[in-house]
């Protein structure tokens, strides 16, 4: 290989329902990429056990639901590989190797671990701490070059690059000797002449990289917020969507005409960002239309738009989840395709490390 084959990898955890943040920050942005390069979209079930083991049936159901959401959003199993992580053993194997590459200090800096472990760090699972290494393994088992995610995954992607760089450096001689590296277009003291793992590019862009809670514009919209009014779930019906937007927190002022005017107005900024992402435009364009108007006029327009965009998807998700055997077929075919890429990568990684191959 003279250069890395462009390849997209991304995933969502099957913990509860998907919400508008997952859709606008990630899944909706994956759809056009399918026509640009090979794409792999994973339901990351091994990640879903790091905080605690969910009820077994709920985990199974959520895995199928997330798969249905991918498909309803426009991820096409004929164009993309769709599978659930636990079915491809190479993720776990590479994660172990990366446990031995990543440094404690690197993981100690991860803000998401600090947030999720809270005050009770001593009682958090080792899996929750090592989780970013598994995420790096997810990506690098396919030597993926592009990872479209929301803003909250940025630090994990930096860690993925640190892991790739350390592996490439630590095994530089061996990678060169085995002739399985890819020439580094920009060799530097930090990176050797040949690379085994690509330096993955994060793709974090657009008006919806960080959708905030509808109840508090300073908090991220998340599955774990105890208030259901804080988020729009992808399986909410039209009434629920309208109610949540109607009740969304705002300030008393009219919308500004310029993006600058959204500064220090987190709730207004969030709702305008949601409108922009749903209408596939920009905050500037939305403010051109709505600048000077009150929330009493903007909210109904946002609500109509959200229902128009989300309702067909919700219906399609319902249709798909009614037939789990079809979903399982998609996941099975996807796992086979994913294994066909990851197995040879792990074979080379074992060789680079020097694990004796006797089979
Ligand atoms: P997860 O399951 O928490 O979220 C899935 C995707 O949704 C994005 N997201 C948001 N985007 C905008 N606004 C929000 N409020 C919001 N909340 C979530 C996330 O950034 C993400 O893109 N560790 C990952 C899953 C993962 C992964 C991977 C991703 C595991 N391995 C490899 C990419 C590549 C996670 O927990 O995402």
What does this structure look like?
With 359 residues, the protein is mainly alpha-helical. The protein has two domains: 8-207 and 323-353, HUPs (Rossmann fold, 3-Layer(aba) Sandwich), CATH 3.40.50.620; 228-321, Tyrosyl-Transfer RNA Synthetase (Orthogonal Bundle). It is 49% helix and 7% strand. It is built from 13 helices and seven strands. The protein has helices spanning 20-30, 56-73, 90-99, 104-108, 111-117, 126-140, 154-170, 172-178, 238-246, 266-278, 283-290, 295-321, 324-353, and strands at residues 8-12, 39-43, 80-84, 146-148, 182-183, 194-195, 201-203. The strands form three sheets. A three-stranded parallel beta sheet has the order 1-2-3. β1, α1 and β2 form a beta-alpha-beta unit. α3 (90-99) packs across α6 and α10 (266-278) packs across α12. The protein is globular. The two termini are 26 Å apart. Tryptophanyl-5'AMP (TYM) binds at residues 9-13, 21-22, 25-26, 44, 47, 135, 138-139, 147, 149-150, 152-153, 156, 208-211, 220-221.
The ordered string of helix (H) and strand (E) elements is EHEHEHHHHEHHEEEHHHHH
Number of extended strands = 7
Fold-level CATH name of the largest domain: Rossmann fold
Poorly predicted runs are none
């Amino acid at each position: 290989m003279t250069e890395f084959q462009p390849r997209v990898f991304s995933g969502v955890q099957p913990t509860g329902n998907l919400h508008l943040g997952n859709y606008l920050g990630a899944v909706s942005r994956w759809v056009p990429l399918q026509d640009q390069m090979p794409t792999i979209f994973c339901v990351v079930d091994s990640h879903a056990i790091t905080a605690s083991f969910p009820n077994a049936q709920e985990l199974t159901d959520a895995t199928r639901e997330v798969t249905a959401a991918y498909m309803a959003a426009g991820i096409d199993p004929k164009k993309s590989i769709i599978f659930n992580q636990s079915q491809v053993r190479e993720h776990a194997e590479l994660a172990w190797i990366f446990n031995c590459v990543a440094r404690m200090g690197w993981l100690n800096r991860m803000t998401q671990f600090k947030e999720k472990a809270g005050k009770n760090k001593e009682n958090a699972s080792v899996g929750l701490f090592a989780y970013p290494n598994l995420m790096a393994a997810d990506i690098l088992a396919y030597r993926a070059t592009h990872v479209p995610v929301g803003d909250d995954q940025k630090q994990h992607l930096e860690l993925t690059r640190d892991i790739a760089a350390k592996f490439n450096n630590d095994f530089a001689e061996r990678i060169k000797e085995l002739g399985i590296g890819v020439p580094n277009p920009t060799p530097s003291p930090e990176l050797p002449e040949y690379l085994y793992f690509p330096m993955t590019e994060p793709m974090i862009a657009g008006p919806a990289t960080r959708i905030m809670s509808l109840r508090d514009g300073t908090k991220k919209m998340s599955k774990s917020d105890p208030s259901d009014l804080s988020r729009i779930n992808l399986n909410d019906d039209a009434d629920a969507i309208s109610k949540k937007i109607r009740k969304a927190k705002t300030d008393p002022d009219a919308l500004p005409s310029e993006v600058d005017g959204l500064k220090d107005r987190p709730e207004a900024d969030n709702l305008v960002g949601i409108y922009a992402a749903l209408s596939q435009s920009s905050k500037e364009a939305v403010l051109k239309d709505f600048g000077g108007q009150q929330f009493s006029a903007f909210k109904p327009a946002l609500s109509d738009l959200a229902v128009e965009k989300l309702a067909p998807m919700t219906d399609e998700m319902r249709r798909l989840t009614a037939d789990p055997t079809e979903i399982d077929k998609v996941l099975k075919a996807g796992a086979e395709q994913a294994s066909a890429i990851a197995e040879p990568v792990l074979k080379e990684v074992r060789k680079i490390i020097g694990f004796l191959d006797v089979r």
